[in-house]
């Protein structure tokens, strides 16, 4: 006997199945109806895709696009203070996660080429130093200590500073503005102010890197005359977005998961060689990012 599943009018978001599992409604849909009609908050009729194979098929279909300038992006949840989109978003130079080939391919190849083995080894040493300094700071504080505020958020921010070659004198303001931009519950004016502060600073930084390049990834990219200042700013901002909140979420949620599973934590403590596999498993198990936006190329999309 088939399971009866109601068609959702909105995206199920209530965490009613535990801290690590998706909402129960999502799990039921994934099992019984992996492609379901959905009505967005703005009244738009779309589809909720929850099945693994269906998602893989969709993501590989070139009739769907990452570009947000092809049509209106309908957000599946309401954001207080953010007006409903009535027209396509403009294409942001350098932000290649919102691009399709060949633009996406060109920019991604340039960024991947800057991640050399030598630089990654050097960065690994710097990351260890950053993590140890933050842990020392944690140990000096009087309990209880907020792990997210004092460790999970500053560590990726400081690593990105190393990655982009942000001068030490600028790092405090850089951390404040990057953290402010990632605050979810804030007004549109506050978010845009933080965005303007970040992109304004990054424009100054990449201009300095082009004039006097150093030994960092942003300098390598700035040496490439094929990239405009606007594209360099977009790539730098993408590195900030991709590496900051996701890494902070993994550090915090991973710690929480291990606290909830003391047997697994004990195994890791007894055998540190298990850590690489544990990190891979935590990346698979946890939802470190809960938003994925893509649009349909309406010129070729299926009806």
Order of strands in the sheet with the most strands?
1-2
**Percent helix:** 40-55%
Structural class: mainly alpha
Strand content: under 5%
- N-to-C span: 31 Å
Any descriptors?
about 300 residues, mainly alpha, Cytochrome p450, two-stranded antiparallel ribbon, two-stranded antiparallel sheet, 4 strands, about 55% helix, about 5% strand
Descriptive notes:
The protein has 303 residues and is mainly alpha-helical. It has a domain at 111-285: Cytochrome P450 (Cytochrome p450), CATH 1.10.630.10. The chain is 54% helix and 5% strand. It has 13 helices and 4 strands. It has helices at 24-32, 52-60, 103-114, 117-140, 147-152, 154-164, 171-181, 188-211, 217-222, 229-243, 245-260, 262-270, 275-285, and strands at 35-39, 45-49, 64-65, 295-296. A two-stranded antiparallel sheet has the order 1-2. Helix 7 (171-181) packs antiparallel against helix 8 (188-211) and helix 8 packs across helix 10. The longest helix is centred in the middle third of the chain and has 24 residues, at 117-140. It starts with 23 loop residues before the first helix and ends in a 7-residue tail after the last strand.
Brief sketch in words of this structure:
It contains 13 helices and four strands. The chain has 303 residues and is mainly alpha-helical. It has a domain at 111-285: Orthogonal Bundle (Cytochrome p450), CATH 1.10.630.
């Amino acid at each position: 006997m088939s399971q009866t599943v109601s068609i959702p009018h909105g995206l199920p978001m209530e965490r009613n199945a535990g801290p690590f599992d998706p909402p129960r409604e999502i799990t039921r849909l994934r099992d019984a109806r992996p492609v379901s009609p959905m009505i967005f908050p703005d009244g738009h009729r779309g589809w909720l895709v929850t099945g693994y194979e269906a998602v893989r098929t969709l993501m590989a279909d070139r009739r769907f696009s990452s570009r947000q300038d092809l049509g209106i992006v309908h957000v599946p949840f309401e954001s207080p203070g953010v007006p409903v989109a009535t027209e396509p978003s403009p294409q942001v130079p350098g932000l290649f996660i919102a691009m399709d080939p060949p633009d996406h391919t060109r920019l991604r190849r340039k960024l991947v080429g800057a991640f050399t083995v030598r630089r990654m080894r050097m960065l690994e040493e710097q990351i260890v130093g950053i993590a140890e300094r933050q842990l020392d700071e944690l140990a000096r504080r009087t309990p209880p200590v907020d792990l997210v505020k004092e460790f999970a958020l500053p560590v990726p921010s400081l690593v990105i500073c190393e990655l982009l070659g942000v001068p030490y004198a600028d790092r405090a303001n850089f951390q404040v503005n990057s953290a402010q931009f990632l605050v979810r519950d804030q007004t549109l004016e506050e978010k845009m102010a933080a965005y303007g502060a970040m992109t304004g600073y990054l424009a100054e930084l990449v201009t300095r890197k082009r004039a006097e390049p150093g030994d960092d990834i942003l300098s390598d990219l700035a040496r490439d005359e094929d990239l405009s200042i606007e594209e360099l700013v977009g790539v730098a901002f993408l590195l900030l977005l991709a590496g900051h909140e996701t890494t902070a979420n993994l550090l915090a949620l991973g710690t929480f998961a291990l606290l909830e599973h003391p047997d697994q934590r004990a195994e890791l403590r007894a055998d540190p060689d298990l850590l690489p596999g544990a990190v891979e498993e935590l990346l698979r198990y946890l939802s470190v990012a809960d938003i994925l936006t893509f649009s349909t190329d309406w010129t070729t999309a299926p009806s």
